[in-house]
User: Fold these one by one.
Assistant:
Number 1:
Amino acid sequence: MSEQRRRRRAAVPLLAVAVLGLAGVAVAVATLVLRPEPFPAPSPLGPERIAIQEGVPLAPDTTGTSRRVRDGVACSAGEGTAQHLHAHLAVYVDGVLRPIPAGVGVVAPSITRRGTSAEFARATHCYYWLHVHARDGIIHIETPTKNPSTLGQFFAVWGQPLSASRVAGAKGRVTVLVDGRVVRGDPADVVLRRRESIQIDVGARVPFQPVDWSRSHL
């Protein structure tokens, strides 16, 4: 057998190995490209059995300690008995969830287990009729009458602005969804109703994120 034929035969297995190696690399690359991104892990449940809102708060708790009436909402030593409802508020700024801090509407709050999913605020002075105990976006509507309360009143208690172009410190186009339905007009006029899910998008729109009330006692 000539030396040239021996070289050809020796080259064939090497060529096959090289082809198989390239094929393996291609499959690995395709797997990496096509593999879907995993969904983010669900947030832990808070003390009210509603998922905790994680991230940088939309604004600090600026309720203060003056106890003055704000937009018709007073601060009482006890929580209201004529009406006791709960609504959920979630605010997204350019697609990012910005939590509502625990303690809004709770004057001189005593916060237990601060910084954990079990964080909970109790008043040492009084509760505004609209207030938030935990970092879960739940607004407690506890009033001495059955008159409707609004989102604008909640923000007045919080001490933060709310308009068609601004939500607390976030500025941009504001879109309000209530139970998945877009609501036109002034966001401050949105009425807070029992187990209502309110989502505010500032800037980029976010698909409506429903709230799971099934595990909560509220």
Note: Helices lie at 3-34, 151-158.
Number 2:
Amino acid sequence: MGALLLTQRGALAGLAAASALAAQMLPLSAGATEDTDTPGAGRWEINIGASKIHKAGGWERSLPDSDFNYGLGERLQLMAALPYVTVQEHGEPHHSGWGSASAGAKWRMADQDALGVDLAVFPQFSWNPSSGTARRGLGSPGRSLLLPLIAGQRFGDTAWYAELGRNFIERGAHEWQAGLKLVHQCLPALECRVELEHSRVPRDGGQTTASAGAKWRLSEQTILQGRAGRDIAGNREGRRRLVLYLGLQLLL
């Protein structure tokens, strides 16, 4: 990781690219590499946003694309999420409804001060609250259990986070998921970030996504956050041409 550095100019360039894409499409994306932080005892972290994914055959939008997180002690975070999804295939009518629900718990089991690196686990269970969710293409069929390990380290204004996990899928092939995120405090109120995410199904290939984004602190309790990216490797037929997310993070 020592060879991987993010300069302020490069981070701002990434932010500018993300902002240009966001201005064209407005909503932005889901599924970012996790960090090892938790809200703190008795504190809430609420993310309220919108996301949009464009593929060759159509698009998918989640509005709201939100999750609710509560700090149960200094090391434990409880999470629940349920997006409202709209999908549109070219030449077909669009479908809307609640997507796959998810619930999880993040536990930071080691701190950088003691071990030299932060370590956390974040098991997440997903399911369809309605029998029509998968049939209408609003969520994956069946249930799934994601078991990731997350590591992170901070050096002054710069930090990195890496994630590796296995997603056990009830009605499909299990997959590996990995992510790498680099963040830098570009300005006192602006955090810039770049990410690489990869998912792979054994014997069926994988998909790699690159993205850039930022968090802008509007107040002590409110943060504006967004990112933009696209798939850069993997199956061309299912490749996402544009992945966008824009939202507010509320710290209560």
Note: The chain has three helices and 16 strands.
Number 3:
Amino acid sequence: MTQHEAELEKFKTLHNRFRVQPGYKSIDHHGFTMSENPDILFTALVHGNEVIGLQVLNLFLEKTLKSNHKAPYTFAVLLCNVPAYDKNQRFINKDLNRSFQAPIDTPKIEKGQEYYRAQQIEDIIQNLQPRFIIDLHQTTEPTLSPFFMLPEEESLVLSASVICKEWPIITFDPSGFSKDGKTLMEFARGENIPALVIEISQNGFDLNLAKSICEQLFYLNAEAIITPPKKDDVSYFKITQHLTKFIVGSELMPGFQNLQPVKENDILGITPAGNEYFCPADGIFIFPKYGHQAEVSTELGLIATPRNFLQLKADS
């Protein structure tokens, strides 16, 4: 049995063990809740090849059972795209994290696995009404540490800082993360449910890192996350630059990582004609794209620049 198969079997076994616990209710073949309206819904495998989220949830569930079945807060768990996980692919037909709130007139040819799964997840969230959602992801390229992704809203930035002060907080414009479709996080926001993403590491299982993330999540102060105390000194970053490929075939220089500091006019890449692609601003690199991902994207990555609440208030 491969580790892929073993981790999914472990989740199924743990799910069965929770069936006899007070408060248990199934919400999906691959999900359950321990309360009618849980404090936190943990989601994983929105992208099938971002596997550490499942490993983290298995450790979290094991720890909860070993703690005399007394979770430190009420929670629910949901695996979002198991068919893609089974194939170790990001998705089957279309990125699930661009498939939420799909238009009613979506052509039939585009209504694949993720289209229908997104609708199921929307129904689950609407019925469950969790107080907060934490969506576990991984990056394609290496990252210097875990980091948060969330819309630029003061309350969400504060919530992230409560979860972990050491992890960088990366925000994006609340109008939307991608032109290709809505994310789970954005759907939740439309339902007035606060949600954020934790980008844990580069794709792949990592037991030591998964244990560390599990400990971080298990001992969360849920009330402080859901209603975070006001602060004025929280620093974060905002995605301000999209590194558009103005010329097909442009490529990044090798070796860029998530959260890597860059300076304005640093050489980031090169065009097919040999011309250099310069960094447009000081900041940190987010989601650098190489290989097939770079070939199918119109962007080479993103640059996030430092922000604070004074700037946010000045813009509002």
Note: The two ends are 54 Å apart (CA to CA).
Number 4:
Amino acid sequence: MRKSSSAFFAAILATGSLAPNISHASGALPRAWASAQFGADSASCGALTSPCKTFQYMHDAIVAVGGAILVRDPGAYGPVVIKNALSIVNANVGDASVSVSSGDAIAVQAPTTASILIKGLVIDGGGTATNGVNATGFGNIAIQDCTVMGFKGNGLAIVPQAGPGLFAVAETLVRDNGTGVLVQGNIANAQNMNYVQPTGTLTRVKANANGVGVLATSLAYVEIDQVDATANATTGLSVTNNGFIYLTKSTAVGNPTGVKVSGGFASTYGDNSFIRNGVNISGSLTAIAHN
């Protein structure tokens, strides 16, 4: 975690699925357009003038492995299960939503070599669905400029079961979820030195009005940079069960517990603000210097 969070995020994007060395399937498009308002799912969709309608159809039938779904218009695009390298990008055309009432809005079940980018989406669980993004399989994943709200489980669940598990989340709001952001390693076979240790950054993330704002656990390594954890029901920022967090320029305000260290490890660069919580810090923080 010595690399700055902005540099780490750039490195994740550099390896992402908008890179030019795309693996083409026969007849598949490297990039295709989606319009919930005007699109239609068919074998011939994907051009700017004849967009597709749903993310799932595009993933399954239109876009090449390593390709990109580009949002043309605002609208509701439906849930999607991602099983290969893919980018889904809304470049500020308006609200592009993935709304569900049960289960996961976006499930990432890709190979451990896959790069995933999710950008510019509104992901809504309506207070009844389970997870916003449930990322169990990927090589690296970047989530940027999203709003994730209303999930009983987790807004973002970064829980790789195998592989390197690199991640970067930036400029994203998670609110009104059970846990805003969960980062969890897989330590089932730790005694054989066979475990998964997700490593990455949360940068300029707002984790507000969740049960827990951010939770790092089970060997997860998370740099928490310019994160705002406000008015969560129990804890703003939490690390447990041999997780590791590195805190810089972050705030925890108005939570029963601002920062909770319980069976994990927390380091601070000394430039954070944890104020007006019931308990500002529970457990110990280790002071470290910026490199």
Note: The first strand starts at residue 29 and ends at 34.
